[in-house]
Amino acid sequence: MSEANAVLIGRKPAMNYVLACITLFHGGAKEINVKARGRAISRAIDVVEIVRRRFLLDVKIKNVDIGTQQLTSTEEGGAPTNVSTIEITLTR
Amino acid sequence: MSEANAVLIGRKPAMNYVLACITLFHGGAKEINVKARGRAISRAIDVVEIVRRRFLLDVKIKNVDIGTQQLTSTEEGGAPTNVSTIEITLTR
Question: If contacts are CB pairs under 8 Å, which of residues 1-40 in chain B contact chain A?
Answer without folding.
Answer: 38-40
